[in-house]
Amino acid sequence: MTGDLLVQFLAQGAQMTFVLLIAPLAVGVVRRVKARLMRRQGPPLLQGYFDLAKLLRKESVIAESASWLFRSAPYLIFALTWVAAALVPSFASGLMFNWAADVVALVALLGAARALLALAGMDVGTSFGGIGSSREMMIATLAEPAMMLIVLTLAIAAGTTRLAGVADFFLAEPFAVRVSLALSLVALVIVALAENARIPVDNPVTHLELTMVHEAMVLEYSGRHLALIEAASHLKLVLYISLLICLFAPFGMAPASAGVTGWLIGLAAWTAKLLFGAALLGLWEVSIAKMRVFRLPDFVGIAFVFGFLAILLAFLTRGVFA
Amino acid sequence: MPELSASGAALGALAAAAVFATLVRGAALALVYPLCAVAALVLGAVDLRVLLTGTELTQQLPIGLPTIGLHLRLDPLSAFFGIVVNGGILAASVYGMGFDRAKELTRRVEPLFPLFAAAMNLVLLADDAYAFLFSWELMSLASWALVVARHADPESRRAAHLYLVMAAIGTAALLFAFGGLAGPAGGYAFDTMRGHPPQPMVAALVLAAALIGCGSKGGLVPLHAWLPLAHPAAPSHVSALMSGVMTKVAIYGFVRIAFDLLGPPAWWWALPPIILGALTAVLGLLYAVLDRDLKRVLAYSTIENVGVIFVALGLALAFRANGEHEAAAVAMAAALLHALNHSWFKSLLFLGAGAVLHATGRRDLDGLGGLIHRMPRTAAFFLVGALAASALPPLNGFVSEWLLFQAVIAAPALPQAALHFASPAIGAMLALAAALAAACFVRVYGTAFLGRPRSAEAAQAHDVPLAQQIAMGGLAFLCILGGLLGSVLATALAPVLADLVGGGLPRAGSGPTVFSLVAFDPARSVYDAPVIALFVAIASLTTLVVVHRLSARRTRRGPAWDCGFPDPSPATQYTASSFAQPLRRVYGTAAFAARETVVMPPPGDSQPARFSVVLVDHVWRALYAAPGRAVLGLSERLNALQFLTIRRYLVLMFAALVILLAIAAVTT
């Protein structure tokens, strides 16, 4: 049992490291696709890594009014996001410590990271930090319930809240067409856009003061702290794409009993799907404009309504057929 | 029975403390708090022993009503709530030990504090309707007197008046409930009531009355209006007791009646607590997120948590009525654990608010700021409480929230269609409440403790005395411990769950590790807080080490960047009001008909621009203001009857006689 646990631990560590290492590449793909579609040369695919390396080398300038919370938050935010990302099955469903937490805990871990980031945004006491935190929390009050409804719907469909169990369920019958799952897919895509501060909810490349949300919160960060925040947001993007893959396109994923070959196949399939997902995101972002902040409730509200309809359908069909 | 004697001695000590405090004045009043702390420790220890051994102690004393006497009983349910109550009393007493002996002790507060503490313990011990109602009233009156302690403030007087009216309505409803339970034979003892469950129609009325009686004390919408006024008006350590603990006594009352005395439930009993609870949860936070007074925000958040507990209780009723004992145990465990967790983090937050009030003299969020620099310990403890209240892992608020969501997704197993429609809706409302709670507490903490001070008082704040830090630190420790060891707490609940719903959670150790919290089945739902916390700790420490290895490690302090134009005035920061503005635009227009008016002077005019927001409290308008106006209007009309001529009075009397005779003639 202890040896088994050690293997699990190592496998978990390998998965966590891999997710961490590939995250900047995924962001690089999004940027590259966007640039090419706009007929620009675009940054190199590896620019994400260069940026992180540059930020790590630079000194960190901290505002005089900042407290210990401001300095420690990036480490915690990064760690929470990393652990959350490790919970989502990527290339194999059965190897992780995913017995330790379920979908509800996953949503809450991301919520904890967000709350810390919003607090850090208010710590220095500038108007931009506040504007970012306030808007981020407003968006979160719409996106987080939608996310919770989606994961509860999936849990009802799979009969378990464990992510590995949910993944196994979708791996076993990937093409079961259900209305509630289709609604969940739409809702999850909207939530993913909102949570990752992508267009049309937020623009990751803007620094136009009045439209910033995420960028306004992290405005005071620099150097290694900013590197950690950036890395955390890359991880979050990978997390959401992985979640979509795991739930709606799980083919190729190694089941719980697979050996090393299965893992390698799963790894290749997952990497390909992740990069494809990133490219799709780039395509989506060039084809739509950013919304005004107060139009967002309508957009993210769609996710909430779809999530609600999905769980309602899940309840009613379970009640009739179960 | 030595345990009950110990409890009795502790209650006697509380009574003695109350009497003592009425007799002395000045610094001697400070002796009340150590005495209360010792009494709470003894009472809590007895409760803990009863809960862990799963025993039941009864005692009949020849005091109280003649021929009936006083029935006392300490069963696992009372013992569990006793731990909740005495934990809060202990923390508040330790906090009280830090009061400045020369300035902060008055005979308006100190004699009533032990009385209030004793009354809450007595409610839990009562085993007949008379003892229950007597101690319930004692609890209400003691807390009312504590609310009105600062009677010079008209706000306090108004709050106390409203509280008194609502408490009277609540007690009247409970009186009615116990009347229904006692039945035509009039059995006052709970044992007699348990033996003769009422008819279904009567049971429904009793349930409604219990919901009104206990709901008004706990702050269930629409009976909540007094709570955000009265809880903040009391001294802060009493606010902590009222919000953290007294609301739990109300929940105890509801559990005692609905799960114990009322007999086997019908499935539809679940609907009123579920619907009202979900409404309460969301509405409480919408109020909280828009309010600007630190203590009032906390009081509104209490309303939300009481709503969450009632939702869990309603689900437990529904599951139990359908024989789903396992799911009922999950829902019930969620309710009980949330009661315990809420008592810890809300007491902590109110004590923290008291510390802020003491240090700055202000409760308005827009006048605070930057306290993390001036009050580092209080700020750290308050942060733990705020994150726990936002139901974020790995703190204790999340454990009960997690169990509750597990109960919600077990609801498709219920056969009733109404519950199939209701359950997803309450799932959605609970999720919304959780997200709003995070926004609410980020706002509170961000404006009060972070940023730069917005007033001179906040800039010169100082941390509170050691005893008060110990009280807050102990509660913060419990919030962390309760979050990590949720499975241990859930296991300790086993005798209560077996009594109330006839089921239990899977035993500790059935999951992957000893500390895994398991709902239903390890293959179905597991939450292992220590492992998650360990992974987060490993990940953050590794990151810390690696980043410090790789990075330049240089750090420089400089002025804030703020897009290149930092403004030295603290007024340019976001305030609590500005933080709430997006939320008000999104939710306020629907919930409170929020309207913003901006008055801009014409160009060239140097008058300041004005901005104002109008919120309409529909519940207050429809359920409090309108009946109030109706009563006033009616009494003014009837007032004319006092100034008639003698002839008219005679005519009235004659008419009354004729009408009565006519009625008599028709009916006989």
Descriptive account of the structure:
Chain A is mainly alpha-helical and 322 residues long. Chain A has one domain (2-321). Chain A has helices at 2-37, 47-57, 68-87, 103-123, 127-158, 163-172, 179-195, 214-217, 223-248, 260-286, 296-321; one strand at 60-63. With 668 residues, chain B is mainly α. Among the domains of chain B are: 280-505, no CATH class; 576-614, no CATH class; 619-667. Chain B is built from 25 helices and seven strands. Chain B has a two-stranded antiparallel ribbon with strand order 1-2. A two-stranded antiparallel ribbon of chain B has the order 3-4. In chain B, a hairpin with a 5-residue loop joins strand 3 (517-519) and strand 4 (525-527). Classes of the chains: A mainly alpha (322), B mainly alpha (668). The interface between A and B is large, with 92 and 95 residues.
Report the biggest beta sheet of chain B as strand number plus sense, adding barrel if it closes: 2 strands, antiparallel
Helix residue percentage of chain A: over 70%
Structural class of the secondary elements of chain A?
mainly alpha
Summing up helix and strand content along with how strands pair, one would put the structural category of chain B as: mainly alpha
- Overall shape of chain A: it is globular
Oligomer category: heterodimer
The count of DSSP E runs of length 2 or more, i.e. the number of strands of chain A, is 1
Order of helices and strands of chain A: HHEHHHHHHHHH
- N-to-C terminal Cα separation of chain A, in Å? 37 Å
| Overall radius of gyration of chain A | 20 Å
Describe how the helices and strands are arranged.
The complex is a heterodimer of chains A (322) and B (668).
Chain A: H1 2-37, H2 47-57, E1 60-63, H3 68-87, H4 103-123, H5 127-158, H6 163-172, H7 179-195, H8 214-217, H9 223-248, H10 260-286, H11 296-321
Helix pairs in contact in A: 1-3, 1-9, 1-10, 2-9, 3-4, 3-9, 4-5, 5-6, 5-7, 5-11, 7-9, 7-11, 9-10
Chain B: H1 2-23, H2 32-53, E1 57-61, E2 70-74, H3 76-97, H4 112-125, H5 129-147, H6 154-182, H7 190-195, H8 200-218, H9 227-233, H10 236-261, H11 271-290, H12 294-321, H13 325-360, H14 371-374, H15 376-389, H16 396-409, H17 417-448, H18 456-459, H19 466-484, H20 486-492, H21 494-501, E3 517-519, E4 525-527, H22 529-550, E5 555-558, H23 576-592, E6 595-599, E7 610-614, H24 618-639, H25 646-667
Antiparallel strand pairs in B: 1-2, 3-4, 6-7
Helix pairs in contact in B: 1-2, 1-4, 2-3, 2-4, 3-4, 3-10, 3-13, 3-19, 4-5, 4-10, 5-6, 6-8, 6-9, 8-10, 9-10, 9-12, 10-12, 10-13, 11-12, 11-17, 11-23, 12-13, 12-17, 13-15, 13-16, 13-19, 13-21, 15-17, 15-19, 16-19
